[in-house]
């Protein structure tokens, strides 16, 4: 992959941007210059990171001003809607998701976060405090606070901490503020409204709420679910957040892959993510798509002959 420093660069990151997208874009923008743009609406932890970094992301892009578009942490073009990418500008995709819809110019590495990839690409001798916080924030959140970290993850993380002087507590204090009253109520209502299905020892839980889908799904996992699906509906649009435990991932059940398969069958939706966490959005009835998610997960469990002891 060749990106010339003299090129005018535009970095694009996905809608509902998370700290991994923000962190990798911030780091490359600081090292290579350029502009960063994203469809509006970063998630809460990403907004906390942006505030600390004092970093501005544009929600519009004048593509004709740039020589190259660098797309980060975005496995599917639909995640850049409503941006319409021009065909006559060079594009480079840097990503760590296995299930990618891009068919060319992909720089893929098997890493747990995009921040690890961009750090290895630049391989800096030193890091500023803000660069360290941006990179560690991406790694920390995309590995579920290092629960899904590999030996390479920890090696890279150690280098970043040494070069920047940043600690994990420094980053956690920036990203994770105390839960608001609204989030607490959403979690409780999500649990109260939930229904569950047991399949070969796997407990699959689904619920409908008004907001905080990811937080509610995580809460349901803590309450005993193996797989949790929390959805919200606003007018004709829905959003579903899926989460799965580490035990489920050991059996090669992949939430991101499941959501991606739904997108491939239905042009009205956009889905993807990681094995243990994914998001499905689109137009349609929430109940229909929640049921479809459950159906696909159940089919996969049965087709693979998976089972868990109940004791």
Question: Quaternary status of these chains?
Answer: single chain
Helix-strand string: EHEHEEEHHHHHEEHEEHHEEH
Radius of gyration: 19 Å
Percent helix, as a range, is 40-55%
- SSE-based structural type: alpha/beta
CATH architecture of the largest domain: Alpha-Beta Complex
Mean pLDDT: 92
Kindly report the spatial arrangement of strands forming the biggest sheet: 6-7-8-9-11-10
Using the coordinates shown, work out and report the CATH topology of the largest domain: inorganic pyrophosphatase (n-terminal core)
Provide the β-strand percentage band. Answer: 15-25%
CATH class of the largest domain: Alpha Beta
Walkthrough of the structure:
Strand 1, helix 1 (19-32) and strand 2 (35-37) form a beta-alpha-beta unit. With 311 residues, the chain is α/β, with parallel strands linked by helices. It folds into 2 domains: 9-175, inorganic pyrophosphatase (n-terminal core); 182-303, Diaminopimelate Epimerase, Chain A, domain 1, CATH 3.10.310.40. 44% of the residues are buried. It is 41% helix and 21% strand. The mean pLDDT is 92. Helix 1 (19-32) runs parallel beside helix 2 and helix 1 runs parallel beside helix 3. Strands 6-7-8-9-11-10 form a 6-stranded mixed beta sheet, sandwiched between helices. Strands 2-1-3-4-5 form a 5-stranded parallel beta sheet, covered by helices on one side. It has 11 helices and 11 strands. The longest helix is centred in the last third of the chain and has 18 residues, at 286-303.
């Amino acid at each position: 992959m060749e990106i010339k420093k003299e090129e005018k660069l535009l970095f694009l990151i996905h809608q509902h941007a998370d700290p991994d997208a923000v962190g990798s874009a911030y780091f490359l923008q600081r090292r290579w210059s350029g502009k960063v743009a994203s469809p509006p609406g970063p998630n809460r932890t990403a907004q906390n990171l942006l505030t600390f970094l004092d970093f501005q992301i544009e929600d519009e892009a004048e593509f004709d001003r740039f020589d190259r578009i660098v797309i980060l942490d975005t496995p599917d073009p639909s995640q850049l809607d409503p941006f319409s990418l021009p065909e006559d500008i060079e594009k480079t995709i840097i990503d760590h998701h296995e299930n990618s819809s891009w068919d060319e110019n992909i720089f893929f590495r098997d890493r747990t976060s995009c921040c690890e990839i961009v750090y290895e690409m630049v391989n800096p001798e030193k890091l500023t405090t803000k660069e360290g916080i941006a990179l560690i924030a991406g790694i920390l959140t995309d590995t579920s606070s290092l629960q899904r970290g590999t030996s390479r993850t920890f090696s890279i993380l150690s280098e970043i901490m040494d070069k920047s002087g940043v600690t994990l507590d420094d980053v956690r204090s920036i990203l994770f503020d105390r839960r608001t009253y609204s989030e607490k109520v959403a979690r409780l209502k999500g649990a109260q409204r939930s229904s569950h299905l047991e399949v070969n020892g796997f407990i699959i839980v689904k619920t409908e709420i008004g907001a905080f889908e990811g937080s509610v799904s995580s809460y349901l996992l803590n309450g005993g679910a193996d797989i949790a699906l929390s959805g919200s509906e606003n007018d004709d649009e829905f959003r579903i957040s899926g989460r799965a435990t580490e035990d489920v991932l050991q059996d090669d059940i992949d939430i991101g892959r499941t959501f991606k398969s739904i997108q491939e069958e239905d042009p009205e939706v956009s889905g993807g993510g990681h094995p243990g966490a994914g998001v499905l959005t689109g137009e349609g009835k929430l109940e229909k798509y929640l049921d479809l998610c459950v159906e696909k997960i159940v089919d996969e469990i049965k087709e693979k002959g998976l089972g868990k002891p109940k004791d």
